[in-house]
Sequence to fold (214 residues):
Amino acid sequence: MEPIYKETSKILKAISDAKRLRIVDMLSCGELCACKILESFDITQPTLSHDMKVLVEAGIVNDRRDGKNIYYSLNMEKLEGLLSKLNVMFYEKEDCICNKKKDHHRM
Amino acid sequence: MEPIYKETSKILKAISDAKRLRIVDMLSCGELCACKILESFDITQPTLSHDMKVLVEAGIVNDRRDGKNIYYSLNMEKLEGLLSKLNVMFYEKEDCICNKKKDHHRM
DNA sequence: TAAACATATTGACATTTTTCTATATGTGTG
DNA sequence: CACACATATAGAAAAATGTCAATATGTTTA
Fold:
């Protein structure tokens, strides 16, 4: 499979969980520490920690430590890049995959 | 969980598979029958049938029968709706979830 | 340095997803 | 109507994901 699909699908997978999508929405107003996010859900702390790791590893969320707390914020460049890639894929274009042959680059 | 996240995550889940994302990209130039799509991947026919069902049930792909063949095409309204919703979620807004309290509408 | 607090990791389990083989269904053709 | 062709469904196995309790790690403060 072409890298563009693998990379994009990794980000999509990260936000394809309703709870993680809600976390991204929460972060759109600015950074939040894990404890604040946790207050907003009925999940355990390890579950949130795992979810934040998924978002960070997908590259769409940044983390920074300040004392005991970890603060998370959106990586807008990555998110804009995602919207841009989806836009290209959803609409017809010059050098289109539609003109390509069988995929020999398996996943 | 609020319906907006559940609905959006269902669509994201549908395209969070690299192969299905590639299928969406292929359909951006116009409708294709299942057999044409199948030629483009190293998967079995039932696997493609299942993948197309996921895309159709997410509402982003339409299907129509013409004789022996099923033709698939993109539902642009749904895809535009997705981009629009993501745009709202990624950027700060007036009536923001950031100002909301604990989520009592569990999934 | 010991205790308290915030977050991460481990290991386990249940659920969901992916993909296959075998088979069924629907449609056109000889 | 029997056969060929295109697609769908059923059932099973493997892999990935979501979630928890228990515990570890890192940080601040008494």
The CA atoms of residues 64 and 94 of chain A lie 41 Å apart.
